[in-house]
Design brief:
Shape: elongated
Number of helices: 4
Structural class: alpha/beta
CATH superfamily: Aldolase class I
Largest sheet: 3 strands, parallel
Strand order of the largest sheet: 1-2-3
Number of strands: 3
CATH architecture: Alpha-Beta Barrel
Order of helices and strands: EHEHEHH
Number of domains: 1
Oligomer: single chain
Distance between the termini: 37 Å
CATH topology: TIM Barrel
Amino acid sequence: MAARAGVEGLVCSAADLADVGEAAPGLVRVTPGVRPRGVDRGDQRRVVTPEEALSAGADLLVIGRPITRADDPVAAAAAIAESLGVN
């Protein structure tokens, strides 16, 4: 329905990525609740690692507090990027 309405993307949990991809393969899938392994889950219930989210089909990852609340946000972001092979 969203694709027919002209929406270009959806925010969806990692658990929903496959269903969204099957129903509307052209939509950009944005996935919140992404946490590197070993980082506090905070108030997120359905947490996945960045690697798991990308493997499940996420196009964009929302990784907020694990970076913004880190003692060294730049190092935290760099470590996540490195774990994904992004330079």
